[in-house]
Amino acid sequence: TKVISMQKLDGVDFEAEIKKVDFARGGGTSFIEVMDRAEEVDPSIIVVLTDLYGPFREKQPKCPVIWASAEDKPPEPPYGKLLSLTA
Hints:
With 87 residues, the chain is of the alpha/beta class. The protein has two helices and three strands; from the N terminus they run H-H-E-E-E. The chain has helices at 14-19, 31-40, and strands spanning 46-49, 65-69, 81-84.
């Protein structure tokens, strides 16, 4: 329901950086605040690891968005590219 943490990856060692990220689970998701907060740091791309269940804001961010989901049949996002994490 709210952004728990943000981590800007500098690209030096993605594996080490991603291990430091605090991934919250449960409680619902609002992609409205997620996109608002992400744009505050002027990203070159936004990658969201999600099940895609939650409200979206209408305005698409200025940068590309990748929605990465491990769901078998996730909802279709209103913008960006959907990346399946199912094997």
